[in-house]
Amino acid sequence: MTTPLRILGKASSINVRKVLWTCVEAGIPFTREDYGSGFMPTDTPGFLAMNPNGLVPVIAVQDGFLWESNSICRCLAGMAGRDDLLPRDPLARARVEMWMDWQATELNSAWRPVFMTLLRGATSFTVAQLTAGIAEWNARMALLDAQLARTAAFVAGPAFTLADVVIGLSVNRWLMTPIERPTLPAVTAYLDRLDARPGWRAHGHNGLP
């Protein structure tokens, strides 16, 4: 990719950071424009023409725009020919995408009420929902801990993949949210392995939840 990738979305967004980290891993040059809460609006006709959901990130591609962070990461790995990040073999690829989908569905649904209440000041969740959310989030993290204990390396197996980009950021969010957490030794060891990666240090373990 000779022309820098155009990324629309503020750098503090966890979903934008997935894309930024993927770019670092894949060696893709990029420019980024601040869109989202506190910056350029995402509810204008111009932005909605790029993403009708009014959400970031969005990337510009030759025939238009792409949205949905996990799909963007898959696309970028393919465009860069990085079969290590997202294998071509159907079964190996499915093992990576299985965990990426788990992050987008099971893990996200667990942390959303907790994060939105404790770090974003939302008042729409009840105490019961908050308590249940913390328990569910910790349960999902315990499931991840068991997987990492099995691989003794990365989420989908012995090698780093896109699954680690999307899940690594969610693990960081879990640690940055002020809740009571169980001790998960495999997750702790996993974070030590991620700390060796410049993309993680720049866009994951960078002080943002």
Automatic annotation (TrEMBL):
This is Glutathione S-transferase. Keywords: Transferase. Transmembrane segments: none annotated. Pfam families: GST_N_2. Residues 89-209 form the GST C-terminal domain. Gene3D superfamilies: 1.20.1050.10, Glutaredoxin (3.40.30.10). Residues 3-84 form the GST N-terminal domain. It comes from Neoroseomonas lacus. Belongs to the GST superfamily. One of its GO terms (molecular function) is transferase activity. It comes from the Bacteria.
